[in-house]
Structure to design on (486 residues):
């Protein structure tokens, strides 16, 4: 009897193994049809990437591969094979097929850290039913509200920053990067608190300062550890892991402390936190939601703003046009069209997230190739945003290209609109699009308008500034800007 059970068990296991092997063989056969570069066993194209400048130049490496291999190709960077997609219609198709619970990949080191520390994180780290419940609540508050909801909190913070610059005797903005990190964290804090922000401004400053000091370390240490298997780095206690762990420990501790202060101060302030609580998020869960909002928005919005200031300072005619247009639109809640175009151009040229990823629950056909469910798909936003097929003069900072009229230079907006509808989507689309899109837009619209109303900008950098990858796309050297009072 026992022998028969053992024999049946072994037979069943062997059948499953055969089925799995057959399935894997089918997957590999399907993927092998997709264009791909020559790769080395085990490490794939990792050596080629290193010779091209390493992870800092990943966006340029992938862009060259698209030029060589077309709108879709498969490459292996390390142990994982990824399908890279350039065509905006294909990107839209991916988002339309991401399923009820869209799956995405985040850095291996973050995942391991959360497991080791038994750490519950915010929306970005959630999956499945938990993600869907929180996402629906946050959609009501962060995406379905009018932008005007966020303008006054952003105006208060922007006013503080520009007044400090007005009172300063220095022309050059020193430590612009650090200032923008603080600006971004303060803006999110103000949006969360509403009218109570100014009343508690002085109390909040020490906690904001402590958080800003460590935030950058999280992303820098994550970038440095990204080329090492996280389990290996942890097991052998490599210095890169120790620095990463220390940075995340401090950042979470300080972000949690700031979130707790916001929770204690929020009542009857009319801020976003109050509405999140009213819509069903518990006080305990609100801490982790706010913590991740502060950390994520602080980094991504700060860098986007840095790129936007760089482009405006580099193009004085455009900043003057935005200033003159803003004088004709006195309502702060109505951003000038050219300002909106400038923000879109900055996001097109320098998307802080040059790649988006998805793992689809079902098979999909892209460009005539059958791609099995579970394949890692990478959407090449940097390449699509700079592709001549979708944008005239793609390297040019040209806010007018987004206006709903023909402003010359042989540009017809009706044709442009159809071509670029999904060629530049820095906030993604679909049910897992960026939850902080409206927050970020409000911050930039209000702040740039206030800056240009008071100053003209001059770029002091003499070197050519390039984008390099430090987990997100950042300038190759600190941006130096001089302010001249109007």
């Amino acid at each position: 009897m026992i022998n028969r059970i053992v024999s049946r068990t072994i037979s069943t296991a062997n059948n499953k193994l055969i089925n799995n092997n057959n399935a894997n063989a089918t997957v590999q056969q399907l993927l092998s049809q997709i264009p791909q570069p020559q790769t080395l066993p085990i490490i794939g194209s990792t050596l080629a990437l290193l010779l091209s400048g390493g992870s800092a130049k990943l966006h340029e490496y992938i862009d060259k591969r698209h030029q060589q291999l077309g709108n879709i190709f498969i490459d292996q960077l390390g142990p994982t094979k990824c399908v890279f997609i350039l065509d905006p219609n294909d990107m839209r198709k991916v988002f339309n097929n991401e399923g009820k619970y869209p799956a995405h990949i985040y850095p291996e080191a973050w995942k391991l850290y959360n497991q080791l520390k038994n750490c519950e994180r915010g929306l970005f780290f959630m999956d499945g039913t938990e993600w869907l419940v929180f996402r629906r609540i946050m959609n009501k508050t962060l995406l379905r509200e009018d932008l005007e909801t966020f303008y006054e909190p952003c105006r208060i913070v922007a006013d503080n920053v520009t007044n400090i610059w007005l009172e300063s005797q220095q022309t050059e903005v020193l430590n612009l990067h650090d200032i923008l990190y603080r600006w971004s964290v303060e803006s999110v804090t103000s949006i969360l608190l509403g009218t109570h922000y100014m009343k508690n401004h002085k109390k909040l400053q020490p906690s904001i300062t402590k958080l800003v000091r460590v935030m950058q370390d999280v992303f820098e240490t994550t970038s440095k550890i990204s080329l090492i298997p996280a389990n290996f780095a942890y097991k052998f206690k490599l210095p890169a892991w120790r620095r990463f762990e220390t940075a995340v420990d401090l950042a979470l501790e300080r972000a949690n402390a700031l979130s707790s202060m916001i929770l204690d101060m929020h009542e009857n302030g009319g801020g976003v936190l109050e509405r999140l609580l009213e819509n069903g998020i518990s006080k305990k869960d609100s801490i982790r939601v706010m913590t991740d909002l502060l950390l994520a928005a602080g980094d991504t919005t700060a860098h986007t703003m840095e790129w936007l200031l760089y482009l405006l300072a580099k193009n004085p005619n455009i900043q003057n046009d935005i200033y003159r247009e803003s004088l004709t639109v006195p309502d702060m809640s109505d951003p000038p069209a050219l300002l909106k175009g400038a923000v879109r151009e900055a996001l097109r040229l320098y998307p802080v997230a040059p790649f988006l990823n998805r793992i689809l629950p079902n098979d999909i056909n892209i460009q005539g190739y059958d791609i099995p469910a579970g394949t890692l798909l990478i959407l090449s936003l940097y390449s699509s945003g700079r592709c001549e097929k979708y944008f005239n003069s793609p390297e040019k900072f040209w806010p007018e290209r987004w206006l709903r009229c023909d402003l010359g230079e042989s540009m017809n907006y009706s044709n442009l609109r159809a071509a670029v509808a999904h060629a530049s989507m820095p906030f993604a689309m679909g049910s897992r699009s960026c939850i902080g899109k409206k927050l970020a837009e409000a911050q930039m619209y209000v702040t740039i308008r206030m800056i240009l109303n008071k100053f003209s900008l001059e770029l002091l950098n003499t070197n050519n500034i390039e984008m390099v990858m430090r987990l997100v796309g950042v300038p190759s050297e600190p941006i130096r800007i001089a302010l001249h009072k109007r």
Remarks:
- Strands lie at 72-77, 80-85, 355-359, 364-366, 369-371, 376-380, 455-459, 467-470, 472-475, 481-485.
